Structures are given as C-alpha cells and as structure tokens.
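sry for the spam today, last one i promise. struct tokens for design, 287 residues
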C-alpha cells in the first residue's frame, strides 16, 4: 500500500523534463553549465576557471536539505508528503543569477547581465607590504571612516567616492586606488587601522591556517572523532541551536560492517546469516 506521508527527494544533474535530462553531471560540469566558470574568467585574466571547491555538489546538497525540511513542515501542517526534484544545473543557475541577472531582469533588457562590482578585475585580495588582505570598504560610513583614518588624502575628494552609485559606476578605478594605498603598510598595520575604522577586513588565510585559527578554537569548531582507523579531526556543525545542538557523526561503516545486524533485523535465521555474512567480524567499530 502506498504511504501518502512519504517525502521522496530526487537529486539530479538536470531537470527531468528538459533536453539535458540524460546528460551525466559532475561538479565541474555543472559549474561550467551554470555560468560560474565563465564569470570566473573576469577575475583570472580572461581564462575560464573552476572554483577551488566543489560548489555545485555542496549548494545542491544544501538546497535539497532545506527542500526536505520545507516538505517536513508542510507534512506537519497538512499530513501529506510529496516528491521533490533538486536538479544541480537549475540550482546553480539560480545561485549565480541572483546578482548577475541585472539589466536582463527586465523584458526587454534595460542593461547587460553581470554585477559590475563582483566582476571588476580589481576585486581581489590586496597586496600589502608583507602579504595580502581582504578589504570591503563599501558604504558611505565605511569610506568616511577610512579617509579619516588615513588623513583624508587629496584623492579622497574625487567625486567618484561620493556615493555608492558613483563608486559602483567607477568601481575599477575606485578599487585600483585602494590597491595602491594598501601596498604601503603591512597586513597587521592595516588590520589595526581598518578595525578601528569599522571597515570589514581580514588577512588572507590558507586552509592550513584554519587548523589552528584562534576564533575556531575558541568557539569549539574542531572535533576529535575516534574511529577504527585512528583519531580524526572533523569540522563541527557550524550552526548553533540553543536547545538541540548537533555534533559530527561517526565515520561511515566499513564494507559489510553491519551486514549481520541488518540481516537480523530482516529476521533471517542464524544459519542464513552465517551463510550470507560469514563469521562475526572482530573488533568491529560500534555505531
């Protein structure tokens, strides 16, 4: 008998009603199809590049997670389940178009696609006297505080710095000027200046740096997980719940690790289990 409360989630490469439905899909392929690879070309000297993370896989997974939660909420309210389709291509196309649709949002278009600030070749980590720093001097208060902090140089009076509109219209020149200034002091010096001026900034950190990042240590981000293969470092759950906190799960089971338990649950006889699963494994990992 069918169960009307079942929630069935399908994660596909492409929506099943479109012409790409039968195309095989992996993260790199969907990055290319969704416009992300092309967008990266604006920041890498015209050469299309993949992001250095499996963004399509992860964004599609997160989208599926909130879709299932929404379906669970609907079931709690009205008692019925439903089928969900989460195609990677459509999900990443939506993800990239949020800010880059721009003038093409209107029909007919009133301007080109592409968010100018995000696509400026000057939008990059800035070189300092001894490294690199990420700086986001964005709204009028940020710029006013920044100019005060560095003594209001002559170039600060240029009309292109007057408002968000003028800065966006001249974004490459604005960020180019900022780039020149940031080369004059060390990363640590700029962090002190920018923090005092309440301008968002952070040093460029490597993945290795995060292994002993003081903030991640203080908030208890890293967890030690014990497994049959040794102790492992695992990222914690990044979301904090006041009533139901989570924690990393155990590593996935080894091949056949739970065969006997599953067969027992399915009411196989001991003789059948012995024949199908073999003798009990020694030192099996619990959980």
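last one done:
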């Amino acid at each position: 008998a069918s169960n009307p409360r079942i929630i069935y989630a399908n994660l596909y490469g492409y929506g099943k009603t479109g012409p790409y439905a039968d195309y095989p899909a992996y993260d790199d392929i969907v990055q290319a199809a969704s416009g992300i690879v092309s967008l990266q070309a604006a920041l890498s000297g015209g050469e299309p590049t993949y992001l250095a993370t499996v963004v399509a896989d992860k964004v599609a997974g997160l989208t599926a997670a909130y879709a299932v939660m929404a379906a669970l909420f609907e079931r709690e309210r009205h008692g019925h389940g439903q089928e969900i389709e989460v195609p990677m291509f459509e999900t990443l196309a939506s993800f990239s178009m949020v800010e880059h649709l721009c003038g093409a949002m209107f029909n007919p278009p009133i301007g080109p696609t592409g968010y100018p600030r995000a696509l400026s070749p000057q939008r990059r980590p800035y070189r300092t006297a001894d490294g690199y720093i990420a700086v986001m001097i964005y709204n009028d208060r940020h710029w006013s505080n920044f100019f005060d902090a560095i003594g209001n140089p002559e170039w600060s009076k240029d009309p292109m710095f007057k408002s968000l509109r003028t800065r966006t219209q001249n974004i490459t020149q604005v960020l180019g000027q900022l780039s020149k200034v940031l080369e004059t002091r060390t990363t640590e010096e700029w962090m002190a200046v920018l923090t005092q001026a309440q301008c968002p900034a952070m040093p460029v950190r490597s993945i290795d740096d995060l292994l002993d990042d003081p903030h991640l240590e203080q908030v208890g981000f890293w967890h030690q997980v014990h497994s049959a293969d040794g102790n492992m470092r695992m990222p914690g759950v990044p979301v904090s719940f006041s009533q139901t906190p989570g924690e990393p799960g155990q590593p996935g089971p080894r091949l056949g690790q739970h065969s006997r338990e599953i067969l027992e649950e399915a009411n196989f006889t001991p003789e059948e289990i012995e024949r199908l699963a073999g003798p009990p494994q020694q030192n099996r990992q619990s959980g």
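Residues 100 and 114 are 4 Å apart (CA to CA). ok im logging off now
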